[in-house]
Amino acid sequence: MSKARIQCTDRVVGAILASWRYDISGISPEMRKDYEGHFAACAHCRARQKFHRSLDVTLAVFTSLSALFFFFALAVLKHIHPLEHVAFKILGLDIFDVYHMLVSAGIAGLCFSLAAMALVLMATPAPSTLGGIAAEGARHIEERLPAAIKALRPR
Ligand SMILES: [Zn+2]
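Above: query sequence and zinc ion SMILES. Below: predicted holo structure tokens.
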């Protein structure tokens, strides 16, 4: 604990922003100005805002990857199905029960992931943050386009 923590310059505003998870995208533009001013002046809240926005994006990516994982697991299980009776004969296991247990778990996992993803996208400004990142990326690519290609593009 050698590094001193940066303190908020206005604890009242800081507390309000904290209760909003430092997301001011939902409030009216004239109200937003004051809070934007605070973000400009306060390194503490700026750092917190950055942290929360990256957390939103991480959650959105994590839940969508999780949904994708369960989707693929179900796809794989669908492929295994024809082999079921073969495995039953060779291994002497009650594959049928195991198979249906896995399918149920896969469906439950997929539903849970999709619900979690929907919650993240509704409760956090992750979609706009991701949109901003995408726009930034597109701008970056456009800047790097050779002049010859740029000249061909209609204005
Ligand atoms: Zn602050």
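The CA atoms of residues 78 and 103 lie 9 Å apart.
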